């Protein structure tokens, strides 16, 4: 179930490849002379503070509209059709679960449906601020009703249920219907706490504090917050990676990219009332600790080992980030709902020691695995690459020892060669992308020469990014291990290895993020504006494989598919309604390496299928992933305590006892590399199977 963001924050960077494409000319921009005035058309409680747009936002709107028109890759005209989409996006971003607006509210907004496009061109922001004023009043009304509900106990013996997934639900038709919806909503919240060991009174006390926090958070909303929600409703109608950052969000974005940031190393987003882990920063404490994973929900934060756990459900994302951030060496404890446990899972406490997050620390690493199979010894090398990194500053200053993925991997391969490896596995499972030229240069270590990727820009110009090394640094057996979270530059490398038939891709279908973004500081276009303006992250180009197919939306399909917990409809580029489509351009001219072919891949899959039928760890992994998918697909849940407890008991029976299976996670801890003459048995089942497939590659090539 895909949730939209209430406040869209810059969490997409991990999946981005930023390539600076020169704009031919800056758009001619003329500032608006004044803010178009409007009078509220809805009866708003006098005690509610109504927010209004600022002059600078009017100018920003006109500018952003022009920039999107000229430079966005997807040339969608700003017309009535797009106006309707923008309005729908805005309503969903405000009320994604359809809990606050009444159907009568939504009906009253209908006259605006085909006016948003015209207003954007004029810088007229009447619509978003009118609608937000209504939303704000409905929000306060619901909080008042929740406080009333929490004065009474709930009866958990009744046979009632609550629909968790309200994406396809209608808005309530009356206040009475809305009250009933909220009664069940809060009842489920209380029951969840009861099932996790709280009394009703304790649960109600927690929720009372939570909704007081909700009210305070709404009171703290500023004009620029409303503006950001609305502008992202516009940008996300074009594609999911084009975003507007208001000045505060832009500042947080810059801090996140700073090499001096101290914290846990996780990018956070909003999913309804929850703060979710969007991605783990390679090299950070969360990455090294391996306890916090993508899509986990953070429901509480505590300082130190003894600090009080603060409930953060419903908090603004900025406030949660500030609570988690802290000085190097200090402890933060997070109360987390694990993604794999679903809605009925019990929270776990994750303890993390904050540290300085230096992206350069997330360097490639190698290991050698020795084992014996069918009487034959194998020595296989693994190189884990967490991101495609490069120290551009050192490189431009002529420092010959600048850090880069390709330079590091080349050194690691040289060392592995000296150790006499029989084959090499490149692990990209947690690699969300990075520097494009590093993906190109890394590919050049394994092919003689030729194009690696094609880039088509917003004007239709196509440029090839080539490897011109005219040499192959490593020509031995090669496999690449991918996951659903391998994205962008990882997909470029994997696709090139596959298209050149140089190696075998193993794992899950990749994310499908095949677009390029530019980050534009809007201040440069309005230098006369004294107040700080925001930034626009703008999709300007698209990646294509050398065979002509795009990596966008479809990603890279592995040659040997391993079990996956993710459905492409839920995780990945294809889960976004506005994602750019897959398409094809002319293939580039390139010479195949021909180290693998269809018959070779068929033999590998046959051997893998045999192991799948016989290997207990693979069967356990499949069982665990089936359980995970089942939890994610729950749409409606009982509000009867006895039924829920039976459900939890059944889930415990289904859930595998071996909780050490790492799945998509590259495990640095608990993986033995001294397995010589004992067969290969790793806690990381994906890595184990990847190495067994690499052993198959070695054996078949020797045959």
Question: Can you walk through the features of this model?
Answer:
- With 703 residues, this protein is an alpha+beta fold.
- The chain has three domains: 17-240, no CATH class; 248-258 and 260-357, Pdz3 Domain (Roll); 360-528 and 536-702, Alpha-Beta Complex (2-enoyl-CoA Hydratase, Chain A, domain 1).
- The protein is 36% helix and 17% strand.
- The chain is built from 19 helices and 22 strands.
- The strands form five sheets. Strands 1, 3, 15, 16, 19 and 20 form a six-stranded mixed sheet that branches. Strands 5, 6, 7, 8, 9 and 10 form a six-stranded antiparallel sheet that branches. It has a six-stranded mixed sheet with strand order 12-13-14-17-18-21, with helices on both faces.
- A hairpin with a 2-residue loop joins β12 and β13 (376-384).
- α5 runs antiparallel to α7.
- The longest helix has 24 residues, at 126-149.
- It is globular, with a radius of gyration of 26 Å.
- 44% of the residues are buried.
How many E strands?
A: 22
Q: End-to-end span in angstroms?
A: 48 Å
Rounded average pLDDT? 85
Rounded to an integer, what's the Rg over CA atoms? 26 Å
CATH homologous superfamily descriptor of the largest domain = 2-enoyl-CoA Hydratase, Chain A, domain 1
Q: Tell me the count of domains.
A: 3
Output the CATH topology of the largest domain. Answer: 2-enoyl-CoA Hydratase, Chain A, domain 1
CA-based shape: globular
What percent of the residues sit in helical stretches (DSSP H or I)? 25-40%
**Second-tier CATH architecture of the largest domain:** Alpha-Beta Complex
- Tell me, what is the CATH class of the largest domain? Alpha Beta
The biggest sheet amounts to: 6 strands, mixed
Strand content: 15-25%
Question: Helical stretch count?
Answer: 19
Spans where pLDDT lies below 50 across 5 or more residues = 1-22, 256-260, 656-678
Provide the structure class: alpha+beta
């Amino acid at each position: 179930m895909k949730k939209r963001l209430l406040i869209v924050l810059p969490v997409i960077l991990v999946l981005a490849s930023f390539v600076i494409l020169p704009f031919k000319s800056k758009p001619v921009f003329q500032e608006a002379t004044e803010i178009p005035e409007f009078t509220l058309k809805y009866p708003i409680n006098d005690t509610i503070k109504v927010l209004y747009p600022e002059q600078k936002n009017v100018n920003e709107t006109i500018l952003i509209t022009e920039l999107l028109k000229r430079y966005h890759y997807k040339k969608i005209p700003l017309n009535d059709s797009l106006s309707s989409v923008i309005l729908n996006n805005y309503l969903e971003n405000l009320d994604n679960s359809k809990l606050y607006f009444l159907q009568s509210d939504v009906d009253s907004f209908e006259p605006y449906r085909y006016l948003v496009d015209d207003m954007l061109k004029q810088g007229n922001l009447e619509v978003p601020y009118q609608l937000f004023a209504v939303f704000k009043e409905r929000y306060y009304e619901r909080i008042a009703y929740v406080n009333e509900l929490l004065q009474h106990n709930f009866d958990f013996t009744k046979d009632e249920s609550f629909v968790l997934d309200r994406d396809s639900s209608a808005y309530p038709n009356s206040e009475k219907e809305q009250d009933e919806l909220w009664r069940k909503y809060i009842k489920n919240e209380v029951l969840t706490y009861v099932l996790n060991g709280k009394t009703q009174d304790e649960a109600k006390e927690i929720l009372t504090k939570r909704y007081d926090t909700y009210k305070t958070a709404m009171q703290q909303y500023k004009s620029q917050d409303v503006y950001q929600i609305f502008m992202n409703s516009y940008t996300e109608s074009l594609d999911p990676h084009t975003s507007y950052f208001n000045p505060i969000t832009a500042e947080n974005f810059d801090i996140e990219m700073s090499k001096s940031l101290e914290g846990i190393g996780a990018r956070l987003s909003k999913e309804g009332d929850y703060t979710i882990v969007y991605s783990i920063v390679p090299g950070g404490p969360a990455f090294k600790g391996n306890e916090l994973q993508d899509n986990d929900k953070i429901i509480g934060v505590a300082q130190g080992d003894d600090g009080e756990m603060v409930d953060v459900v419903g908090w603004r994302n900025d406030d949660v980030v500030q609570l988690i951030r802290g000085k190097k060496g200090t402890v933060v404890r997070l109360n987390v709902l694990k993604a794999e446990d679903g809605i009925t899972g019990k929270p776990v406490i994750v303890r993390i020691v904050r540290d300085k997050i230096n992206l350069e620390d997330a360097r490639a690493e190698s290991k050698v695995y020795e084992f014996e199979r069918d009487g034959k010894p194998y020595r296989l090398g693994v190189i884990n690459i967490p991101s495609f990194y490069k120290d551009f500053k050192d490189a431009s200053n002529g420092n010959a020892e600048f850090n880069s993925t390709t330079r590091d991997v080349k050194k690691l391969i040289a060392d592995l060669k000296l150790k006499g490896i029989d084959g090499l596995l490149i692990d990209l499972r947690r690699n969300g992308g990075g520097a494009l030229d590093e993906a190109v240069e890394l590919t050049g270590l394994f092919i003689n020469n030729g194009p690696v990727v094609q880039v088509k820009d917003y004007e239709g110009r196509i440029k090839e990014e080539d490897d011109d090394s005219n040499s192959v640094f490593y020509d031995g057996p090669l496999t690449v291990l991918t996951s659903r979270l391998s994205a962008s530059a990882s997909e470029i490398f994997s696709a090139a290895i596959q298209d050149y038939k140089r190696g075998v891709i193993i794992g899950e279908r990749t994310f499908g993020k095949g677009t390029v973004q530019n980050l534009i500081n809007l201040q440069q276009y309005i230098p006369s504006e004294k107040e700080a303006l925001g930034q626009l992250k703008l999709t300007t180009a698209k990646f294509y494989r050398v065979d002509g197919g795009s990596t966008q939306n479809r990603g890279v399909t592995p040659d040997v598919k391993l079990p996956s917990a993710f459905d492409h409809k839920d995780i990945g580029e294809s889960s976004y309604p506005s994602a750019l489509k897959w398409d094809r351009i002319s293939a580039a001219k390139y010479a195949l390496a021909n180290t693998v072919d269809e018959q070779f891949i068929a033999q590998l899959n046959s051997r893998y299928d045999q192991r799948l039928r016989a290997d207990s760890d693979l069967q356990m992994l499949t069982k665990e992933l089936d359980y995970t998918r089942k939890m994610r697909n729950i749409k409606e849940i009982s509000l009867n305590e006895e039924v829920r407890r039976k459900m939890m008991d059944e889930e415990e029976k289904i859930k595998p006892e071996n909780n050490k299976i790492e799945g998509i996670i590259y495990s640095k801890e608990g993986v033995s590399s001294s397995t010589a003459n004992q067969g290969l048995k790793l806690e990381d089942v994906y890595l184990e199977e990847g190495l067994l497939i690499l052993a198959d590659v070695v054996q078949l090539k020797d045959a």
